[in-house]
Task: structure prediction
Amino acid sequence: MDTGHFLENILLLPRLMRQAGIPVSPEQSRDFARALTLIDLGSRDQVFHTARSLLVTRKEHLRLFETLFNRFWRSVVRGGQAPRQEERRPRRARREKRIDVVSLMSHKAQPSDPEIEIGDRSGSFSAAEALQRKSFAEMTPEELETVRRLIQEMRWQAARRQTRRRVAASKGGSLDLRRVLRAAVRHNGVPLELFWQARKEKERPLVLIADISGSMEKYARVVLQLFYSVTHSMRDTECFVFGTRLTRITAALQIKNIDRAIDDAARQVVDWSGGTRIGQSLQRFNRCWSRRVLRRGAIVLIVSDGWERGDVTLLQQQMQFLSRRCYRLIWLNPLLGHEAYEPRVEGMAAALPYIDDFLPVHNFHSLLALSQHLGQLRSQRGARAGVTT
Result:
């Protein structure tokens, strides 16, 4: 058996997944190749579940993975014939089939072999992959509905922080003297055992503030769906929207039904698709809400295109105050997704010096990037005076 060609054909599936946009590391491919030596290569279910458990790390990639695996199995393993799940073969027949599969995959594929297509002509191609780079403003109502379901399935997490409370740990920075003394009582007061403790880690609070003025009308509904997804993924979140005034919608988004939650949140807003007063809205947030929600090193996300109709000086002052109170200030601008965009409008230019991360939020791909960024970010402003960590 030519083990070189066998390994080459085995790694065809991870290579196809990477081409389709699913991240697969070399370590995952190596583990997949090793796992195939422990299963029956003639069993589609065993190969499928082995590949899915070792090569897929995100829930939104499962549908695309199933399409790729079906093409891989039919074209390379089964010679273009779909496997029949209901057929039960005797044990000897299954062994012979395994030998045939190993023999087939040990030979280098010929040019006449059928190619594996990433797209599924039956229409089962993943909507996430097809729509993830299309702007929300250009989507049809059907495409926006697909994106809504994908956003609802996303799971979010923020960077973690160390609390003052300490918990038992196998390796820690300090001794747990209480446990050491309690254990020493059993040995006549001699501390024969050492116990350690470390600081407990908790997820940082997240504060979401979105612009729902007329210039953001094309993105406002998607932003509320994003807020709903984050609220139901993380334990400590606060959500606000603003046009000419600030409105808190945290309670409305906690409803389990997404349609009811977004409708209730929208009904609470009296200035939907109106003017924009970013400075005044942030001033109200800083005066009325910052002490309550910016506790324990919160992360603040502002979603806006930066079109300010009010006093730009007030916006600059409030951004400076907000940046000092939060752990990290992130501004999401849907216009940043355009290559020719430059933050030249007065509002965006005034806010930019106080922003830690300036990111786009114009398509589904940008949301995936934001999710990864929130889980991995590390503050670069911790040594700054007055910053809560």
About this structure: The two ends are 60 Å apart (CA to CA). Residues 286 and 322 are 7 Å apart (CA to CA).
